[in-house]
């Protein structure tokens, strides 16, 4: 008798759509982070601490702030045409760029040049 009377109290009468919407809102942080690398950590936080409002807010902020990995696109620069080599210059053994005669360090990479090529 008590169970049938509780059905008329609005708190105990859950509609299936209300339950589905509630579950979606509960797992909203995990849903937003589903394509991120830290999805598992956000899901675990949401499962274990999501029932507290603070835990749910932390999971939501983490899901929104973890951001997508920014990929830097490096454009290939066209190769420079070969330069005419003068008889007094030589090439750096570290980077391969031409150096002036008598130089002790490469002007491009800063590597010490061997004494034999001066």
Task: Describe the 3D structure.
This protein is mainly alpha-helical and 118 residues long. The chain folds into two domains: 12-65, no CATH class; 88-118. Helices cover 38% and strands 3% of the residues. It has a two-stranded antiparallel ribbon. Helix 4 (39-49) packs antiparallel against helix 5 (53-65).
In short:
This protein is mainly alpha-helical.
Give the topology, please:
Blueprint: H1 2-6, H2 16-26, H3 28-32, H4 39-49, H5 53-65, E1 90-91, E2 98-99
Antiparallel strand pairs: 1-2
Helix pairs in contact: 4-5
Keywords:
118 residues; 5 helices; 3% strand; mainly alpha; two-stranded antiparallel sheet
Low-confidence stretches: none
Radius of gyration: 33 Å
Helix content: 25-40%
**Approximate shape:** rod-shaped
Structure class: mainly alpha
Strand order of the largest sheet: 1-2
Number of helices: 5
Distance between the termini: 105 Å
How many domains, in number, for the residues?
Answer: 2
Question: What share of the residues does DSSP label as strand, in percent?
Answer: under 5%
Question: What does the main sheet amount to?
Answer: 2 strands, antiparallel
SSE sequence, one letter per element? HHHHHEE
Q: Give the overall average pLDDT.
A: 77
How many strands?
2
């Amino acid at each position: 008798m008590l169970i049938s009377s509780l059905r008329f109290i609005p708190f105990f009468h859950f509609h299936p759509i209300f339950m589905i919407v509630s579950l979606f809102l509960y797992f909203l942080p995990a849903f937003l982070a589903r394509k991120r690398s830290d999805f598992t950590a956000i899901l675990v936080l949401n499962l274990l601490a999501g029932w507290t409002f603070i835990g749910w807010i932390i999971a939501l902020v983490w899901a929104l702030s973890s951001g997508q990995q920014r990929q830097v696109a490096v454009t290939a620069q066209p190769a420079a045409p070969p330069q005419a080599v003068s008889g007094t210059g030589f090439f750096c053994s570290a980077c391969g760029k031409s150096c002036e005669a008598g130089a002790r360090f490469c002007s491009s990479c800063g590597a010490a040049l061997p004494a034999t090529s001066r």
